[in-house]
Amino acid sequence: MEFATLIELAKYTTPPVIVALGLGYWLYKSSDRSAERANDRSVALEDILTNHLDHVEKAVDRQTEGLAEHTTVLNATCRVLERAIDKI
Known about the structure:
By secondary structure, this protein is mainly α. The protein has helices at about 5-10, 15-30, 35-85. About 90% of the residues lie in helices and about 0% in strands.
């Protein structure tokens, strides 16, 4: 997992999620400095963070789809209003 990936995801998430990602990344990196037992923990932490990142990416995708639908509805509403204004 790279730090750049976390920065990219931070653009699309809420502040509490950003803090959680940063803390998780810091814990992951600091556990790397320990002995073999920490190796097992870092692998588990990496799995947890990977799953968390997957959930965040899916949430961003859902929000993007929602925004696209909202934009379509707004555009259709504008067209209807423009036609109504033209008739007046």
